[in-house]
Task: structure prediction
Amino acid sequence: MSKRSQNLYRTPFSAAYWRDALADFRDLRVMAFAALMVAACVALSYAKSIPVVNNVSITWGWLARSTAALVCGPVMGVVFGVAEDTITYLFHPDGPYNPFYIITTVVGVETFALILYRAKVTVWRVFLAKLLVNVGNVFLGSLGTYLFYSTKGYWAIVAGSAVKNLVMLPIEVVMLCVLYAALLPVLHRAGFLPDQAGRLQLWWKKEPKTEPKPAQNAGDKDPWEQ
Result:
């Protein structure tokens, strides 16, 4: 079994980033992890939601989606999103099937992946990822509701969804930070994360520059070697 590379990237805008993402897509351990996260999403779909206010409630399946994106990357993320959305619906249908929601799921997974995969996982990145996912939920999710279910105007649905996602944003960011603080060291020890992504950080710190050690002469002996 080949060892996964330890490369980290600040942004996904490099050929090396996508080479690593493609290599991880072909990795059998990553495939198995993605399948495990699909099963986790199905299991979490049965977990009771916690009401917050009015029709706003805390759900759980997106936590497994974000973890799959973090580990598996954007190439596997597309396959994962399609499979997870379909399989979760088959096991736990919630109203009529809407294939448009596959797009929303894939976009959400890809957003998490592009920000968190092979990066130092920081509170700032977690916030940014969840903010962008919620924005996608507002506009894409509302479009799916408008096209398939609702008699309301699109912008009326967007307004309601925006309020819901705004209320949930700080709660969901805290949930992710708590999850990652506990889970990242475990994933690192299991070999699923690069060394510098093995714990949650506040922000991305620059690595201190180290001076090269002077070369020893052939006749010099290390005082610690006896």
In short: The helical segments are 15-25, 28-45, 61-91, 100-116, 123-148, 154-189.
